[in-house]
Amino acid sequence: MAFELPKLPYAYSALEPHIDARTMEIHHTKHHQAYVTNLNNALAGNVAENWTLDQIMAGISKLSTPIRNNGGGHYNHSLFWETMAPNAGGAPTGELGDAITNTFGSFDKFKEEFAKAAAGRFGSGWAWLIKHDGLLAITSTPNQDNPLMDIAEVKGFPLLGLDVWEHAYYLHYQNRRPDYVSAWWNVVNWNVVAERFRKG
Ligand code: MN3
């Protein structure tokens, strides 16, 4: 079974003015599509050909660099689209809201630490909110790695991931990564993040 590019649950323009339509369209139809195509090519005839994406992440140390880069790219972007929405943002409530306050002191303090992880990731990569052994943590990974991979320095179940590759923001924000991160909070879909917190 070949992997497929998931459809976006909203229009390319839906996240404006925070993320512009052109960036969304190129990011989805060119970048994410390329990860899917290259992953399928790399898996053809490979030992992992019939593995699920989760199995691929968990066994990534035994697989090739193209599978690591493109498998991670497919997982990370699928999650990224899902955890954003128009008319979203705000602060999480319920169990997730409580867990964030208990772990980081306050929601604002959490945002500060997450933004620091995003700004501090040198070059291309991702910032993450993860759950591990019931606890929340912030981490970041280079390239298209993620905390599900058995090679990750800090492992856990990703609840929320932020793409800080330049292709995610350069058209609109140029070199101003911190401005992109600030704007992105307005489109975070906390309902999906809370759902992942429950099952993670
Ligand atoms: Mn990307």
Characteristics:
200 residues, mainly alpha, 3-stranded antiparallel beta sheet, 8 helices, 3 strands, 47% helix, globular, binds manganese (III) ion
Whole-number mean pLDDT: 97
Strand-pairing-aware structural class: mainly alpha
**Helix/strand order, N-terminal first:** HHHHHEEEHHH
Rg calc: 16 Å
User: What distance separates the N and C termini?
Assistant: 26 Å
Shape: globular
Count every beta strand, where a strand is a DSSP E run of 2 or more residues: 3
Mind explaining what this structure looks like?
Helix 4 (94-104) crosses helix 5. The protein has helices spanning 21-43, 53-58, 65-82, 94-104, 107-120, 170-173, 177-184, 190-199; strands at residues 125-132, 135-142, 157-163. A 3-stranded antiparallel β-sheet has the order 2-1-3. A hairpin with a 2-residue loop joins strand 1 (125-132) and strand 2. With 200 residues, it is mainly alpha-helical. The chain binds manganese (III) ion. Manganese (III) ion binds next to helix 1.
Question: Topology, please?
Answer:
Elements: H1 21-43, H2 53-58, H3 65-82, H4 94-104, H5 107-120, E1 125-132, E2 135-142, E3 157-163, H6 170-173, H7 177-184, H8 190-199
Antiparallel strand pairs: 1-2, 1-3
Helix pairs in contact: 1-3, 4-5, 4-8
The chain binds manganese (III) ion.
